[in-house]
Amino acid sequence: MAIKHWAAGVAVAAFAAVGAYVYLDTGRSAAPESTFVLLNGTSQSTADLRGKVTLVNFWATSCTTCVAEMPEIVATYNKYQAKGFDTLAVAMSYDPPSYVVNFAETRKLPFKVAIDNTGKVAQAWGDVRLTPSTFIVNKRGEIVKTYVGAPNFPELHQLIEKLLAET
């Protein structure tokens, strides 16, 4: 019985450690190589993100938190884009493309919007299944922070300012 409790404790501790590593910014990893198909028909690759601080947001029109946070993401983009900040909103594969186009047009989203038709982009970025999931990528193309759920925007703005100041 004691061995079962010990093993369960070790498993919980290992899970917590992995979760802390992934979600609490204790390590930096290269953003996965991906090709984003944008609403305008062009494509962008992960390599194109280099040189800018980029917010990559996985979202869906059916996600109430995603829709609620979008004005804050727009405001963040507008606040920092002239300083070398970019935003890429990636709609999930299950989101009907017509809904995504309608949302982007009616809300006048000022940043790039991609549709992950095949689900391969979400899979490459850690098998994203929960929306919103937001990744902050530094100028070197490294993921420095991940948010599942709406970010704490004042904290996010501090991080963006810090990353923009890096050379």
UniProtKB/TrEMBL annotation:
Statement: the UniProt record of this protein carries the keyword Transmembrane: yes
Gene3D superfamilies membership: Glutaredoxin
EC number(s) on file: 1.11.1.24
Keywords assigned: Membrane, Oxidoreductase, Peroxidase, Transmembrane, Transmembrane helix
Family matches, as InterPro entries: Redoxin, Thioredoxin-like_sf, Thioredoxin_domain, Thioredoxin_ResA/DsbE_sf
EC main group: oxidoreductase
Molecular function as annotated in GO: thioredoxin-dependent peroxiredoxin activity
SUPFAM superfamilies (alphabetical): Thioredoxin-like (SSF52833)
Record field: transmembrane: 6-24
Domain Thioredoxin: 25-165
Name of the protein described by the UniProt record: Peroxiredoxin family protein
Source organism (scientific name): Acidovorax facilis
